[in-house]
Fold this sequence. Notes:
Blueprint: E1 4-8, E2 11-15, H1 24-33, E3 41-46, H2 49-59, E4 62-67, E5 73-78, E6 87-92, E7 105-107, H3 111-120, E8 124-125, E9 129-131, E10 134-140, E11 146-151
Parallel strand pairs: 3-6, 7-11
Antiparallel strand pairs: 1-2, 4-5, 5-6, 8-10, 9-10, 10-11
Keywords: Transferase
Protein name: Acetyltransferase
Domain VOC: 38-152
Amino acid sequence: MRNRVRFYHRIPFLVTGTRSSNSNASKEVFQMIKHIKRIDTVFVPVTDISRSKEWYMNLFNFRVVYESPDGSYVGFRFNESGPLQTGLTLYQTDQLPESRHIAFNFYTTDVDASYAYFTERQVRTSEIHGAGGMRFFDAWDPDGNGIGVVTFPE
Length: 154
């Protein structure tokens, strides 16, 4: 198989016919991306940006860090000091893409308290489940976007 470069979100990855972690290609890829430190932002499609902004702001300890001039994007970060955490950006769309899986999880130190918090606010949730040392539940925003809430030993 010939080597070829594919671009995933503007980051070049060398695709080879072998999977050796010690290969020169793996070292080259590492050298190219070693400065990447975290997932910066998760994008969530919504059909009513105002309703969704209010829902997320009321449920999570977020602060708004960006709103597009045309009102089609709103970005959040957790409202706390310390290292920069992954952000969440809502974007306006007329049609939601089909999704068959929860796109991301929020980590919690107390899944039972988080579950009670969500259900008290009448958020649609699954039951709490456990697997592989984790305990978690799923919840859905007003557009039906699934989010996970998980705890595990750190």
